[in-house]
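Dear support,

Our group has been running a series of protein-ligand predictions, and this particular one with uracil is the one our PI (initials K.S.) wants archived with full inputs and outputs. We had some confusion internally about which version of the output was final, so please treat the block below as the authoritative record. The input we submitted was:
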Amino acid sequence: MTAAEELAQIAAEVNVCTQCKLHRGTIKAVPGEGPATAKIMFIGEAPGFNEDRQGRPFVGASGQFLSELLALAGLRRQDVFIANVVKHRPPNNRDPEPDEIAACGLFLERQINVIDPRVIVTLGRFSMAKWFPNERITRIHGQPRWVGERLIVPMMHPAAALHQPQNRPLLEADFQRLPDILAQAEREYAKRAAAAPPPVAAAPSTPDEPELEQLSMF
Ligand code: URA
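Confirmed final output from the archive:
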C-alpha cells in the first residue's frame, strides 16, 4: 500500500468508527486531510459545527484564520496535513474526554506514522498534552522541542485569538517563525541521514546452505 492509500484506509475506518460515544449525534466524521508527503502537520482539538457538516477539518471561522496564519508562514493549506485529536464533534463543542482522546489516539498515531512529518504543530492544549502533558500553553507556545526525530511546536488554538484578540499577535509571531523551524528540522534530518551507516547489502546465499535450512534456524 502506498502512504496515500494507507491514509485513505485510516480515513475509511474513522468514517465508520463507533469506538467511543462521540460518533452519536454527529453528521460526519472528520478524519483529517492533506498530502501523505506533508513535511508539517497541524493538530487541532475537535471538529466543530461546520466541520461536522462538511467532514473536513478547520473549515469554519477558526479554519479561515488558520489559512491566514498558514499564509503568514508561507505555507499553502494543500501542502500541509491538518488533523484533530478527536475526529467526531463533541456535543455542543464541549472539551473532548480522556476515553474519547484515547480511542481516537490510535488513528492519530497511525496518521503521524504514515506521514512521518518533520514538524508537528499542536494547536491548543489538547494536542499539546499528547507530547507535553504537564506544560502550560502560555509558557511554551512557539518553542520547538525535539521529540525523537521530530520537532513539536506547541501553539495556541486559532480560536483563542478569535475570542481574545490580544492573543492574535502572539499566534501570528509564532507562525512567522515556522519557516525557520522547518528549515532547522530539515537540516537536522539531512545531518542524521548523512551520519547513518550505509545499508548492509544482503549476503548472497551459498549453494551448500539451502534457504530452507537457514529459515528453519528461526
Ligand atoms: N477547531 C478544531 O480544533 N478543529 C477543527 O477542525 C475546527 C475547529
